Amino acid sequence: MKLLDHLEEYFIAVLMAAATLITFTAVVHRYLSGIDIPVIQDALIKINMSWAQELTIYLFVWMAKFGAAYGVRSGIHVGVDVLVNRLSEKNKKVFILMSLGAGAIFTGVVGTLGANFVWGMAHTDQTSSDLEMPMWIVYLAIPLGSYLMSFRFMQVAWHYVRTGDLPKHDHSHVEGLDVEEAVEAAQEGALQPKTAAGDKL
């Protein structure tokens, strides 16, 4: 599972980095192409960057599908649990497992419908307008992302049955920053303001 987790994270990071780099390059290209510098302008105009917007859109589609699966695993999806939290522990567990099961079934159905759609499209000559890439490759994000999301729902459900814990995203956590140490340092006076002479107040 750790290998799959890391592959998922790296894949999303690569997609995000590629989309950012392509967008930045396209914007710089468009800006410099408009500046009247004879040699540079002529060279840049010869470079065709019309495909950049289309590729960026496809990268974001793939990122969204796999990011949704990551969201299930890490508990960052928004959920309304006001009524569920008012139930007894036994009923609460039943409702949580029902919702996770419904998520797994729904995304599994979407994945299957997407796979049938991609299979049918793979037998056509349909390509994208700018990249001229086979469209079945673009739409492959639907079954792959949906099946991964369905698997993540089942994984969370199995973990909940075994431990009683659900994944929760800590919005106050910042990677590389230990908030507790900063608070302790502030309480000990290490971060107290100083006077102009350099003495502590």
TrEMBL record:
Highest rank taxon of the organism: Bacteria
Annotated ranges, domain Tripartite ATP-independent periplasmic transporters DctQ component: 20-161
Main location: membrane
Gene Ontology molecular function: transmembrane transporter activity
Pfam families assigned: DctQ (PF04290)
Residue ranges crossing the lipid bilayer per the database entry: 12-32, 94-115, 135-154
Entry keyword set: Cell inner membrane, Cell membrane, Membrane, Transmembrane, Transmembrane helix, Transport
PANTHER family on file: 2,3-DIKETO-L-GULONATE TRAP TRANSPORTER SMALL PERMEASE PROTEIN YIAM
Chain's role: Part of the tripartite ATP-independent periplasmic (TRAP) transport system.
Assembly description: The complex comprises the extracytoplasmic solute receptor protein and the two transmembrane proteins.
Family: Belongs to the TRAP transporter small permease family.
Name this polypeptide is given: TRAP transporter small permease protein
Lineage: Bacteria, Pseudomonadati, Pseudomonadota, Betaproteobacteria, Burkholderiales
